[in-house]
TrEMBL record:
Name of protein: Lacal_2735 family protein
Keyword annotations of the record: Coiled coil
Family matches, as Pfam families: DUF6435
InterPro entries: DUF6435
Coiled-coil zones: 10-56
């Protein structure tokens, strides 16, 4: 019952992951491949964290 209002950390990480992918896509469209690579790497790190959290459940 008390877990009803507990926030899901994976959901927050998922939103951050999607935002990073969107930023990476915009950087790619603007021709900034260095920023694209950096943002994609950050997104992959977030995805690894999400998978780790889901594996614990």
């Amino acid at each position: 019952m008390f877990g009803l209002f507990k926030k899901d950390p994976a959901k927050k990480l998922q939103q951050q992951y999607e935002k990073k992918l969107e930023e990476a896509m915009q950087a790619s469209r603007n021709g900034d491949m260095r920023a694209n690579a950096t943002l994609t790497e950050e997104a992959n790190a977030l995805l690894a964290e999400i998978n780790k959290l889901k594996a614990q459940d």
